[in-house]
Amino acid sequence: MSSPLIVSEIIERNNELAKSWTPWPLFSEIAAFGMASPSILITTCADPRLNPVDFLGLKPGELVVTVRNVNGHIAPNLNDILALDVLLGFKEILIVHHTDCGATHFKEDQVKGILSERAPGNKEVAFMQFGAIGDVPLSVRDDIAILKASPLVRKELLENVHGYVLDIKTGKLSPV
């Protein structure tokens, strides 16, 4: 079994990679380099087992914007999605949740209980949400509903929201 990574190791790797780094174009240079501006925003889980580049087969130079958090929930990322859409004008949003998500292995009350023990008397914990889920496809449908309920998301973008569940054993995406 390998030992876990530590920050100093990955910083050293970066120092080596930086020696031969090929710079990416600035946003203002993307068209001049013949690259398409990112038109897809992907929101997915932060699970370290699942890299969207890998499970979506993205190739070098194919620019998409990926926003990741616990289970890939929309609500905590909505401000980011709106700001990025103003900057880039997305054409589509892809929501991907997955089987065996860590968010299916904990309960909201469990996390709140532990945090309340860490900070007794902290009233903020009672109002916090941590993304626990019981039904993965339902979680995708809930996220789609959150997007569609927002008056701040462009109508053209709402017409192109796609929800999927990734099976981590097969690598197959199933539409929701």
From TrEMBL:
Enzymatic reactions: hydrogencarbonate + H(+) = CO2 + H2O
Gene Ontology molecular function: carbonate dehydratase activity; zinc ion binding
The keyword Nucleotide-binding belongs to this UniProt entry's keyword annotation: no
Coiled coil: none
Cofactor: Zn(2+)
Residue stretches spanning the membrane: none
EC number: 4.2.1.1
EC class (word): lyase
Cofactor binding annotation: Binds 1 zinc ion per subunit.
Binding site for Zn(2+): 45, 47, 98, 101
Keywords: Lyase, Metal-binding, Zinc
Protein's job: Reversible hydration of carbon dioxide.
Similarity remark: Belongs to the beta-class carbonic anhydrase family.
Protein known as: Carbonic anhydrase
